[in-house]
Amino acid sequence: MQYFLENTISEGNMFILHKARCGTKYVILKTTRIKDAMYSEILRREYELGKTLSHASVISTLGFEENTPVGAAIVLEYIDGITLREYLLVNSSPSTSSETERKHILHDILDGIDYLHHRGILHNDIKPDNIIINKLGKARIIDFGLSYSYDSIYSGVIGGSEGYSAPEILRGKGHAGAASDIYSLGLILREIFPNRYKKIAKKCTQTAPSLRYQNISELKRAILLDDSKPYIIGY
Q1: Are strands 139-141 and 148-149 parallel, antiparallel or unpaired?
Q2: How far apart are CA 227 and CA 51, in angstroms?
Q3: Burial class of residue 164 (count of CB atoms within 10 Å of its CB; 0-12, 13-18, 19+)
Q4: Is residue 226 among the annotated active site residues?
């Protein structure tokens, strides 16, 4: 296929995302910053994992192309939207972002992560920059470059983003299962609802993995229970 570059969407330490056009369709080309065997293998592994995923809250992986204008690249669907970080900056007051909208976003994120966990996949890098809010207000989870799968075909890479990843991930000492992603979700929960779900967020972000919620179902039940109690919107 022939791709025409439009612009660079983002540049990280490992990967670069480019918006490109293929015929009448926009896509994202994800390529490595450094062109060597190790980074190429990480890119290929991410593709092998991504192509098996199919969920409304997870970005779709369309293919892998060796020869694009930016070299070997994963071809991803283009999502017309903004990151969760940008969304929270723009919608910082109740007049522009209702509690209902935020609850829908949280629901999408939890559903997407729950889907991954049931597939035996830990995202490992959940943060506001890796969640896109599209024009319809739907949340989509992106970036599986540091994800871990229990499937031996895709073992993944141990690592994460400081400030959002669980302590055991940042120490590079392995994973605590779903509880590692739940730590990151607790931090996300605080950002989406700074004055609500405080006890839930605190449990999510306990240093010891055994003290956190152990799966998304437990976390969802805790949120539902909290929602059943009287609450006055105050943020």
Answers
A1: unpaired
A2: 36
A3: buried
A4: no
User: Both tokens of residue 93?
Assistant: 């007051």
d(CA 8, CA 158) in angstroms, rounded, equals 27
Are 126 and 144 spatial neighbours (Cβ–Cβ below 8 Å)? no
Residues 138, 111: Cα–Cα separation, whole Å = 12
Q: Alpha-carbon distance 141 to 162, whole Å? A: 18
pLDDT tens-digit series, residues 47-79: 999 999 999 999 999 999 999 999 999 999 999
Q: Which residue has the tokens 């969640």?
A: 131
Distance, CA of 235 to CA of 221 (rounded, Å): 23
pTM here? 0.90
3-state secondary structure of 121: strand
Taking the C-alpha atoms of residue 84 and residue 109, their distance in angstroms, rounded to an integer, is: 11
Both tokens assigned to 112: 């997407």
**Contact of 125 with 160, CB cutoff 8 Å:** yes
Catalytic residue, candidates 108, 111, 114, 125: 125
**Angle of the 99-118 helix axis to the 216-227 helix axis, nearest 10:** 160
Structure tokens belonging to residue 235: 């943020």
- Mean confidence (pLDDT) of the chain: 89
Using a CB cutoff of 8 Å and minimum separation of 24, what contacts does 147-151 make?
A: 147/46, 147/49, 147/116, 147/121, 147/122, 147/123, 148/121, 148/122, 148/124, 148/175, 149/49, 149/119, 149/120, 149/121, 149/122, 150/120, 150/121, 151/120
